[in-house]
Amino acid sequence: MTKAAAACSLFLGPGFGLPAAYGAWYFARHSQVWTFLGFPTYGDGPFESWGVPTTVPLLLGFVAVCAAEVALAVLLWRGDTIGLWLALALLPVEFVFWIGFALPFGPIVGVARTVLVVIALTERT
Questions:
Q1: What is the CA radius of gyration of the chain?
Q2: Which end of the chain is more exposed for a tag (fewer CB within 10 A), N or C?
Q3: Cβ proximity of 62 and 69 under 8 Å
Q4: Rounded to an integer, what distance in angstroms lies between the CA atom of residue 91 and that of residue 57?
């Protein structure tokens, strides 16, 4: 279970973190949200309707969360129990960004990882 949870984290961390890092660089250079295939990345989502505009610090905060996701993947892969608890602790923070930036695959994969983590925790007790 922990290796499958780690795979989910390896999908989430780099999958969202690398584009967010580029998006932050692009935003810093051009003062506008980067568009990919005609879609705004990390902009025009619920954050903006909540009054939270896309900014470089906001994007870099998401990059930091994605970096934590990669570190979490390593812990989960090694089977460290602390990784299971950190996965649960990181989830609410990730949800804020996934929902705020309107990233549809984040919550789906995040819930799948959480189910795997809960199963792994119950197997250890």
A1: 15
A2: C
A3: no
A4: 20
User: Which tokens hold the place of 37?
Assistant: 């295939």
Q: What is the pTM of this model?
A: 0.91
Task: Find where tokens 């602790």 sit.
Answer: 89
Amino acid at 50: W
- Alpha-carbon span 101 to 41, nearest angstrom: 8
Write out the chain's pLDDT in tens, 125 residues: 999 999 999 999 999 999 999 999 999 999 888 888 887 888 778 998 888 888 999 999 999 999 999 999 999 999 999 999 999 999 999 999 999 999 989 999 999 999 999 999 998 87
